Amino acid sequence: MIEQLLLNNWRDGAKLIRLQARQLACAVIALLLISSLTACGQQPISNKQAFIQKKGTYPIRTRHLDTAGAPLYTNDLIHENSAYLLQHAHNPVDWHAWTPKAFEQAKQEDKPILLSIGYSTCHWCHVMERESFEDLTIAKYINQHFIAIKVDREEHPDIDETYLTAVQMLSGKVGWPLTAVLTPDAEPFFGGTYFPPQQFLNLLEKISSTWTERRPAILEQASRLKTEMNKLSAVAKTAHSIDHETLTSARDRISSKLFAAPRYNEPGFPREPEMLFLMQQSIRHADAELMQRLSQRLETLADSGLHDHVGGGFHRYSVDAEWRIPHFEKMLYNQAQLAQVYAQAYQFTRNPRFKQVAKRTFDFMLSQRDGNAGGFYSALDAESDGDEGKFYVWPYTELKSKLTEAELGTAETLLGVTPQGNFEGKNVLWRHSEIERSTDLSASQVLHKLRILRQERRTPPAVDRKTITAWNGLAISALISGFEAINQPHYQRTAEQIAESLWDTAYSADAGLARIHSPKQRIDATLDDYTNLVRAYLDIFDTTTEAKWLRRAETLTQRMLKDFRDEKTGAFLISNKHLQRGLVVPIITARDDAMYSGNSVAAQNLARLFHRTGDIQYRDHARAVIAHFSSQIHAAPESASGLLMAASMLIEGEALQPHYAARGKVRVSSSLNENRLSVVISIQAGWHINADNVLNEYLIPTSLSTKDNSCTTIDSINFPSAKQVELGFQKDPLLVFDGDITINAKLRQSSPECAVAKLELRIQACSDQVCLSPATIELRTPTNQLSVNEAFNPTNNNTLHSKR
User: Fold this and answer.
1) Name one GO biological process term (predicted).
2) How far is the C-alpha of 565 from the C-alpha of 568, rounded, in Å?
3) Which of these three, 603, 628, 652, is where a domain ends?
4) DSSP conformational letter for 564
């Protein structure tokens, strides 16, 4: 029955993305959406010729070989550059890339489309390939009754998100490999994820017979699904207010869900977006309890099997509630975000474990680069030699033969090693850090020895060498955070090198930004490529103060507004609206997943640009995005932590330094060395701020005060010498600060319970023609470097002016 096949489980709030398409003037040819294109005037080459040209440049995975070791089958994927698509280029399935040609063939042959979406490092994608797509019986049936299309989700997240949404609405399931069946017009009517081979063949047979015998029912199902998907991107009927109370309620709900005990055998994901949001909230509100709970989660992740204790870095997720057994692929976006979380946590807790984990993760990231100036590779495979986790797991017999008796005992005590193992008879290492801290034992020597053994004796996982702009943007931002927290100058140098390379090679004024670029391939950027690169450029600008990075961030943002902004909603499409042709539905989404959504980061960037430039168009665009998704923020804040961060920037200001005021004319940063606080204020040429002593009562003096007397007190404060000037808007002389100045203060912690000291800097900026409204900037600094004031007097005046 078609009703049994085509489930109708509409799920509110499901994600949806419009498929990407593009037309270029190359004679009268409609160009491909995803695969590389034949140049104008150049005759397409055959699959056999393409194989001869590419032979030796990629691994051949098929088991169907002739006596000389050459593959028996070669399909259209041989023309592609994607590592994932090339893995399937020699399946007996007659795979096509996502091209107009494939859809035209489906129409001509009156066949449904079998769509399979995955990525090169996906374990279950490999399993389904071996079980089904390499099976001659299944392949023959697919070739006879379907047009088979393969998509690399990392190259084309818009196509992935579109059909991920459809499959979720049809079946309630999401994951990869993603399996969907479409009409020749690309409208989905059936979907799932991984299927065992016999079940898969049975489903294909039922779908094919239903397509032949009950076509109207299928088309009706596809039409209904398309209607429901369109509703997801409709203009919001009601915009809910977002205020301090909303942020507080959302923070509590997100933390409650993040820190809840996992269910039995529930997969465990790091959930970096939520951790980054809560980290900033704990800093903003000096919430020691929240910081402690985050620290406990980070300790758990650092001890877990998700963490590669031998080589550094993190696997994508765990398959058990105890965080012991991972799926072994390593993704760039996980490394970047987790390194950033650990770096920020170290910056505000000074926990040396967090510094160690951050550095090891950065070191692993830096080992996966395209030369000295190129970007980071996207991922490492879960498998080696066809076995999941083979590079990472340890048979007990091997450990017993390679380690001394004492070292083996240490491995058993501190690294969870047992004779029976915890993964298919082998051991995934995880650390008993509490035992390590409470005894004289150390796992360092054992791990060093295992690192050498692994490097010398094991086949490393395959590396997917594509450089994705969005993920490299994440890595740049992480490196800047690492530089600021750990003071490793080469992190900043590397970040700037990659940022320059992306500007030079991935962006052009004519074509815009590329998601993936190489001499052989160019794929147009999606929304998250723009937003993550803009964020990276803003992070570099904040660290270096070089104006070119701000200019580049604005250039990309203006291009994003032109190409991605939906005029009806004020939010952003995931695909360039000018490149879309004949797609199933438009998609506007702000649901965070493994990364912040494109709309979330867009709103954050727009808020930051407003603070740095004073241009109210950025503020208004940020507000429009937040307003469109305000219902989601209230109903499911755990899916909208990135939007909440953007809203917090607009409502409360930025939690992390540097801070900007006076329409970007004033930049403020602070640093703490033991008890001594230095506040550096940079004022643009042609502007000044009032001195700490003013000669006119109506002017606001510069002042520094503690916001919470119960946490920190200021023992002394020193302002720089003021300059006396006469300006055009009044006759009387003024005392002002201009250029770069430093305010020095001596602090003392008045309560050991506070994790973050909060101070307020009050300024008023003026030019020689106008004075702006006074501004109050919150400064936050970790209290772990402060001594506790045993004799604190709560009657002390903690708003101090000059003491010279």
Assistant:
1) carbohydrate metabolic process
2) 9
3) 652
4) H
DSSP H/E element including 690: strand 688-690
Examine the domain organization and report whether 404 and 326 are in the same domain: no
Q: How many CA within 13 A on the CB side of residue 11?
A: 15
Q: Which residues fall within 8 angstroms of residue 527, CB to CB, at 6 or more apart?
A: 560, 564, 572, 573, 574, 575, 598, 599, 602
The H or E element that residue 178 is part of is strand 178-182
| Phi then psi dihedrals of residue 722, to 5 deg | -85, 160
pLDDT at 749: 79
If DSSP codes are grouped into helix, strand and coil, which group holds residue 370?
coil
| Alpha-carbon dihedral sign for residues 689, 281, 308, 177 | negative
pTM for this prediction: 0.91
CA-closest candidate to residue 341, choices 382, 392, 386, 302:
302
Q: What are phi and psi of 403, to 5 degrees?
A: -105, 155
How far apart are alpha carbons 525 and 719 in whole angstroms? 48
| Structural domain count of the chain | 4
The predicted model gives 780-789 an average pLDDT of: 65
Q: Are residues 45 and 78 in the same domain?
A: yes
- Rounded to an integer, what is the distance from CA 169 to the centroid of its chain? 25
Handedness of CA 635, 641, 643, 644 (dihedral sign): positive
- Sequence-ordered list of residues with C-beta below 8 angstroms from that of 478, at least 6 positions apart, any chain: 335, 336, 337, 339, 340, 343, 362, 365
Please answer whether residues 64 and 73 qualify as being in contact, where contact means their C-beta atoms are separated by less than 8 angstroms. yes
Q: What is the CATH number of the domain that holds 783?
A: 2.60.40.1250
Residue where a domain terminates, one of 196, 231, 266: 231
A 10 A CB-CB count for 768 gives: 12
DSSP string, 738-754: -SEEEEEEEEEES-TT-
Taking 60 as the threshold, does the pLDDT of residue 25 lie above it?
A: no
Determine the Cα angle at 140 with ends 137 and 145, to 5°. Answer: 125
Q: Before 177, cis peptide (omega within 30)?
A: yes
Q: Residue 133 has what DSSP assignment?
A: I
192 and 316 together in one domain: no
**Is 330 in contact with 314 (CB distance < 8 Å)?**
yes
For 405-451, how does the pLDDT look when each residue is reduced to its tens digit (9 = 90+)?
999 999 999 999 999 999 999 999 999 999 988 888 899 999 999 99
Query: For residue 398, what are the domain limits?
Result: 392-458
User: Residues 666, 670, 673, CA angle at the centre, nearest 5°?
Assistant: 160
Residue 45: which CATH number? 3.40.30.10
pLDDT at 2: 39
Judged by DSSP in three states, 623 sits in: helix
For residue 306, what pLDDT band results from cuts at 50, 70 and 90?
A: very high
Q: Name the phi and psi angles at 507, rounded to 5.
A: -120, 140
Pair (577, 669) in one structural domain = no
Could you report how far apart the first and last alpha carbons of the chain are, in Å?
A: 87
Q: Which two tokens stand for residue 210?
A: 């239903």
730: left (phi over 0), alpha (psi -120 to 50) or beta: beta
CA gap 205, 126 in Å, rounded: 23
Give the phi and the psi of residue 596 in degrees, each rounded to 5: -60, 145
Peptide bond into 197 cis (omega under 30): no
How would you class 438 by CB atoms within 10 Å of its CB: exposed for 0-12, middle for 13-18, buried for 19 or more? exposed
In a domain, 414, yes or no: yes
Q: Do 482 and 606 share a domain, yes or no?
A: yes
Any domain includes 386 = no
Shared domain for 116 and 11, answered yes or no, is yes
> Is 238 within the bounds of a domain?
no
Is 437 in a helix, a strand, or coil?
A: helix
Q: What is the pLDDT of residues 634-645, one digit of tens each?
A: 999 999 999 999
Number of Cβ within a 10 Å radius of residue 56: 7
Residues 640 and 752 in one domain: no
Same domain, 485 and 588: yes
Taking the CA atoms of 423, 429, 432 and 433 in sequence, report the sign of the dihedral they define: negative
Which is it for strands 147-152 and 113-118: parallel, antiparallel or unpaired?
parallel
